[in-house]
Write a structure and sequence with these properties.
This protein is of the alpha+beta class. It has a six-stranded mixed sheet, sandwiched between helices. The protein has a five-stranded antiparallel sheet with strand order 13-12-11-14-20. A five-stranded antiparallel sheet has the order 15-19-16-17-18, with no helix packed on it.
């Protein structure tokens, strides 16, 4: 069992504060993805967990044991990082054995563990082959095999799929998921790719400038992102954003934007009501899949582009009645130049404070 608890973790470098008072828990056997925008602190976080960087303030527990002062070699964690590459002029076997040899594992135990890990990743027939003669996919599997061969309690991976072509990336994502389930241990994966995060994770930890802004399941983080940066990070095409203000007349609450008005009386929450009649703007966020044709809808649009995305059509439209051409995306089979009226699924729309970028609830 490996329950990982992070409590009030902070890390400062001379030039900037990399992590700011992070607290979260990773359950046993979870595959946890740490993600966020560039320089968000994800690599610093995994380096701190595995002991490569010292903790400035806060506590890291594994199964209730404080590990802040433990050396990396004593944490029983395997780490895969781009900065620790394979030796191209050594065999697969020797690359996998190097860490265990440094820890002075018996020769028979090294061989047994390597054979077991190689079998899991389909590398048994390549153990004597030089790494430089492997395909890119096989090299990635060697990295995984080297990590799991010591039978660690936790595997930590820093974006090893970055720059990998899409077909191979999908294949390797599947391999990592299979390993997580077969080995029944914690995997922590840091990535800047939102697709990797959504498709791999049991839990996603989203960082913004070293601050934890959401720790949640992929479904929840996609459907109800806590901040605008999270909302725009996940989803393709990007979530549509509209700025406006709230007004109230005769008990009817309306979101007023350039080109449309939306009656929000029935679902205006307490957080939203504080903005009624104020000059502060709100941002309405609606995903492309949450629009549909409706003659009584709020959005009168003209179609600018239409493309087939797999089994459905994605149209780029703009508001016909707006002062400026506000373009946004909808999944609907609309023809270029066509005009239509759309409505948004009110159960799926989100409102944010434009200035703080925080979800209103």
């Amino acid at each position: 069992m490996s329950v990982i608890s992070i409590k009030n973790l902070s890390k400062k470098y001379p030039a900037h504060q990399a992590l700011k008072d992070l607290s979260f828990e990773i359950a046993d056997k979870e595959l946890t993805v740490i993600t966020g925008l560039k320089e968000c602190g994800k690599t610093t976080l995994i380096r701190t967990i595995c002991g490569l960087d010292a903790v400035e303030r806060g506590e890291i527990y594994v199964d209730g044991v404080l590990i802040n002062k433990l050396e990396p070699k004593d944490r029983n964690m395997a780490v895969i990082m781009p900065s620790v590459p394979l030796n191209p002029n050594a065999s697969v076997y020797d690359n996998m054995a190097v860490g265990m040899k440094l820890r002075k594992y018996p020769k028979e135990e090294i061989e047994s563990k390597i054979n077991k890990a190689a079998a899991l990743l389909g590398l048994s027939e390549y153990l004597r082959r030089l790494v430089k003669n492997l395909t890119p996919g096989q090299k990635q599997r060697v990295l995984l095999a080297r990590a799991i061969s010591r039978e660690p309690k936790i595997v930590i991976i820093d974006d090893i799929l970055k720059g990998v072509e899409q077909g191979l990336k999908k294949e390797l994502r599947t391999e990592i998921l299979k390993l997580n389930k077969r080995l029944n241990i914690n995997f922590i994966y840091a990535t800047s790719d939102p697709v990797d995060a959504l498709t791999m994770a049991d839990k996603i930890i989203f960082l913004e400038d070293g601050v934890l802004t959401q720790c949640d399941t992929p479904v929840n983080i996609y459907d109800k992102p806590n901040t605008l940066p999270i909302a725009t990070f996940f989803g393709s095409p990007k979530i549509n954003l509209f700025q406006g203000n709230l007004t109230e007349e005769n008990g009817k609450i309306t979101f007023v934007s350039d080109g449309f008005n939306m009656d929000v009386t029935d679902f205006a929450n307490e957080g939203m009501k504080k903005y009624i009649g104020k000059s502060k703007t709100l941002t309405l966020a609606v995903r492309a899949e949450d629009f549909k044709r409706d003659d009584g809808g709020e959005f009168s649009v003209t179609v600018d582009e239409s493309d087939k995305w797999g089994e459905r059509f994605m149209s780029t439209v703009y508001l016909t009645n707006g002062e400026s051409q506000n373009y946004f995306s909808v999944f609907s089979d609309l023809a270029v130049g066509e005009t239509a009226t759309l409505t948004a699924d009110k159960s799926r729309i989100l409102f944010y404070d434009t200035e703080t970028e925080m979800l209103l609830s």
